[in-house]
């Protein structure tokens, strides 16, 4: 818990710029970083003309949803950055929880950081990084949340907040996200707080103990989702006592 210590990160440490339209809030943040922005900058847009998800997939970005990216500069030593997606998922989950009514279907996180309502995807998170010429490292956290628009997705069942009786606007949801991210990044503490983050992540995780298939770039592996290790790696039990740690992949429940 953080109540008995001084906070290192607060709401006042972050700036926000709201755009009507941009190609991609992630690309906008990267451009700002290359131009020397000091970081802790949120960029939101009502619409994206070139939104993207993981592995270069198109992220449909019409008006009515929340499209937000956070630029962080040198947020942690490189060896600790692997736990950041878990922290981001915890923060996004916390924000969405604030705008869902009591009795809504379960709000969960699918490893590593897709947010599901009733096992349907309502949020995607894309974390990208680049070493800058001045030796700073820019890390961009892109977050797209289906508020009132529900694009078709051939890979996963999808939903939006409106389908779950949430009346929140993208602006209201972002206010919750702005506060939740500051809170969780303070707990994460440049990766030093990974134990607290992984503990929180496990309490909101989807499908631990279930049979899953993980699609990797070169193959698919099936087994039982045994949870995550202390660094956030997915632990896949393939049987006969063999557990495979996985750093990145697409998870499908069977």
Automatic annotation (TrEMBL):
Q: What is its EC number?
A: 6.3.4.15
Q: Which UniProt keywords apply?
A: ATP-binding, Biotin, Ligase, Nucleotide-binding
Q: Name one GO molecular function term.
A: biotin--[biotin carboxyl-carrier protein] ligase activity
| Class of the enzyme per the UniProt entry, highest EC level | ligase
Any Pfam family: BPL_C
Q: Does the keyword ATP-binding apply?
A: yes
Keyword Membrane belongs to the record: no
Instruction: Please report the stretch or stretches of sequence annotated as the BPL/LPL catalytic domain.
Output: 12-189
Task: Using the record, list the residue span of the signal peptide; answer none if the entry has no such feature.
Answer: none
Its catalytic activity?
Answer: biotin + L-lysyl-[protein] + ATP = N(6)-biotinyl-L-lysyl-[protein] + AMP + diphosphate + H(+)
Q: Which PANTHER family match?
A: BIOTIN PROTEIN LIGASE, BIOTIN--PROTEIN LIGASE
Q: Which NCBIfam families match?
A: birA_ligase
The name under which this protein is listed is: biotin--[biotin carboxyl-carrier protein] ligase
The species is: Rhizobium croatiense
